[in-house]
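Q: For a teaching session next week I want to show students how multiple molecules come together into a single three-dimensional assembly. I've collected the sequence lines for a complex. Could you give me the predicted structure tokens for the whole thing so I can convert them for display?
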Amino acid sequence: MRGLPPALRRKRRYVAFEIVRFQSDEQGSDGVDKLEARDFLNELWGIVLSLYGEWYGNLGLKLEVFDGKKGIVRCSRDKVNALVVALTLITEIKGVRVAVITTGVSGTIKGCMRFLRTSDPKTSEQ
Amino acid sequence: MQVDFVRFSIPAGVNSRLTDGYSLIIHFSENNSRFPHSPHFSEETSENSSEEVSENCYYISEAGRGERSSSRSNRVKVYKASLVRAEDVKELHRKLKKVKGFTGVLSSDVRVNREAIMRRKVDVILDSEERELDYPSVKLAAEKDVIIEVSLSKFLRVRGFKRLKLLDETRLLLRLLMKFRTPFVLTTGAEMIYELRPAKQLCRFFQFLVENESENESRLRWDKVMELNRKTGERIYRRLLDPNYIMDGLEIEDVLEEM
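A: Of course. Below is the structure for the complete assembly, covering every listed component.
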């Protein structure tokens, strides 16, 4: 079966983010050094469902890339701000105090990768 | 790690890192102290700093971020300001006599906030989960040119129904602020490092709040909100850090040397 024409395809956006922990707090209360993708997603879904509910919470979320500190989340094009709000409200993951900062938004994963690679804030979309 | 101060920053820069986006952190403290010692920030001494630092303003740099901690873009300008916490009007009057400089009032009582707006010494009404402002207070703040702070950190400290209530109250407050053209600033209102967010992320948060109103006819326009926010931010920045600024519309252009 042929794929849908471009006009009928779901428009997506990719949001790059960074989880900030500081050296003194690098090891969480449970001694965990790196955050797991599953824990991050659980926390994100918890916030999304509590904020928007089951019906409006359909942001088309998918975690595309995650290395324990940085990652890319996919969402629908018209729900980017809703996703950024949910990411902003994350304060801890599995008992570890964190701040999630969004570093850029792009229409493709390839475009979004540069926000993960670069450490120069001036080049990011933000 | 909870520390006894309120910081807020003017979203002026456009950067992505946690503190880089902030051109200024205003550090409110009750005893006019310097930035508290923290493992996350290190204060720059005048030998390290090449730029001139005024009495109330100094630089800190973000520590613990490895290679970036010493870079110039990692520096944050901190301005010392006075914080007045008051639970009744008498306490407010008593404490206001002692303060000087840029002053912010933090109170949960609506009467105290209204009284604070009428005081000449007060520059900003700080935000918290318990803060209450009513219709006359917002109108009065516009007349008296007192800044109302609208912060993000209160949403991070509560969950569930309380957060829902706060979101609704903030939306209503923004409508009132826009109606009377009351000066306001969108800030992080952070009391600890984990409550800081980049300026653009902060803007997206409040944009979502503004643009998702149910009443279509009277919907707020985000660009108008940002315009007023930016104007207030610039005014604060110039007032605190520009030596040529005297008041709105009055500034020193050039000083001619005597022949």
